[in-house]
Design goal:
4 domains; five-stranded parallel sheet; plasmid; alpha/beta; Rossmann fold; D-amino Acid Aminotransferase, Chain A, domain 1; ligase; 23 strands; single chain
Length: about 425
């Protein structure tokens, strides 16, 4: 399953419903070098995002996972796998070579170290930026401390303990607890990329200003300081890294950076780097193809804000889209971007796209002023006699119109999906 330079690289994202899976999808979906697949063990957002989607896989804890996953790789002729969860990456790392695929950043020893806080801190115990780890509650001399799960990520399960009683209660509530020093200062993430020659091609620190369920929703891009760069280079020197990876730092009471965790996977908010022109998942593909990389960033991008995107599945088979003109396709003389995006998507999916309107002026002229090509439409229907738009639809159509009475009439006559403009965004892939 080795890729040649003459065919697209077949890339599988697993599991594909998470935020970082969404980032890999967005980073690679338009690449000329990639044919993108998504797979998951649970029914999740991945089925909406990935055009080539496989669901219902066993979990990695299931006995049949290895054989099922191996068959999938062969059936799809997969070349490269992005694992989007630390435990999945840790599990696949020693198995990927036998499955005949490249696992991005899949060195087994490095994946195992990065997955476990205890192993990470032990690996770098001699570094002045490694946090102090306590062997027991009795070994703690100054409070408070932090109790965190050895296999945790994204700050999940982290507990502040102000005394031995709180520490023991926190330890009893989690598997494999780790006791570390309390770091009261600022927290940052540093996105990195290491190429096949072990060169640290990119190091990009960013803030974690607003975090939801461990995911950074607001991130400010920071200048790379010598201190942070030194930590990145030392991690890169000691671990076998290749591809996108990241680490998190937090300042101690004296303002010095200390390590929180290292991860060998793509982070969801690596989108901040892509927003400034550094596409880390695509760099992994290029590196796999043996190409030398140069990161060309845009210094004018300094802040990234994220929000939850909502998608829906339309359980209705249709072959035609009918769309109104006034205030649906064109608003205040300009094309409505999300309506246009859906129409282009529909054309790519093989649907017929039709314009139906009661427009009182020259339709061709209105379209031209809004810079909309008439060529996108299979037909243009202009109703001048006051008749019903429903008379022009087939039962295997959907209808987009901002005017409620029009939608109501069509829905009652034909029982087909009718959409207002605000609903269109839910169908855009």
């Amino acid at each position: 399953m080795n890729a040649s330079m003459n065919k697209k690289l077949k890339v599988l994202v697993f599991p594909c419903g998470s935020e970082n899976a969404a980032e890999i999808h967005q980073a690679l979906r338009y690449s000329l070098h990639v044919e993108l697949f998504g797979a998951s063990s649970v029914d999740d957002h991945g089925r909406f995002r990935f055009e080539r989607y496989v669901g219902g896989l066993p979990k990695i804890s299931d006995a049949e996972f290895d054989s099922t996953f191996s068959r999938l790789l062969v059936e799809l002729d997969i070349d490269v796998v992005f694992a989007t969860h630390d435990s999945v990456l840790d599990y696949l790392a020693p198995r990927a070579p036998g499955m005949g695929v490249t696992l991005i950043n899949g060195d087994p020893q490095t994946a195992a170290i990065a997955r476990r806080k205890s192993a990470t801190y032990a690996c770098f115990r001699d570094a002045d930026w490694a946090p102090h780890m306590f062997e027991s509650v009795e070994a703690v001399k100054a409070w408070p401390i932090i109790v965190k799960p050895d296999l945790g990520q994204g700050g999940q399960g982290v507990t502040l303990a102000n005394d031995p009683q709180q520490a023991r209660a926190a330890m009893d509530a989690m598997q494999f607890p780790v006791l570390v020093e309390y770091l009261p200062g600022e927290e940052i993430t540093v996105d990195c990329f290491t190429d096949r020659k072990r060169r640290l091609v990119w190091t990009g620190p960013r803030t974690r200003e607003r975090v939801r369920a461990g995911i950074t929703m607001r991130s400010r891009l920071l200048a790379l300081s010598p201190e942070i760069e030194g930590i990145a280079r030392e991690i890169n020197q000691r671990l076998q890294l290749r591809g996108p990876w990241f680490f998190q730092l937090k300042a101690d009471k004296d303002g010095r950076w200390k390590l929180l965790e290292i991860s060998c996977r793509v982070a969801g908010t690596m989108v901040a780097q892509r927003a400034r022109g550094v596409n880390l998942p695509l760099m992994a593909v290029q590196d796999h193809l043996g190409r030398d990389l140069v990161a060309l960033d845009n210094p004018h991008v300094n802040l990234v804000e994220r929000s939850i995107a909502t998608r829906t599945r339309l359980d209705f088979a249709y072959d035609s889209v009918f769309v109104d003109l006034d205030d649906t396709l064109v608003l205040n003389g300009h094309a409505v971007p999300q309506t246009m995006a859906f129409l282009y998507q529909s054309k790519a999916d093989g649907k017929k796209v039709n314009l139906i309107t009661r427009h009182a002026f020259d339709v061709a002229q209105t379209l031209e002023k809004a810079h909309i090509s008439r060529g996108i439409f299979d037909q243009i229907i202009v109703i001048t006699d006051g008749g019903s738009k429903a008379d022009h639809f087939s039962p295997d159509s959907i209808f987009i119109d901002n005017h409620f009475p029009e939608r109501l009439e069509v829905a009652r006559k034909l029982a087909i999906p009718v959409l207002d403009v605000d609903m269109v965004e839910f169908l855009i892939k």
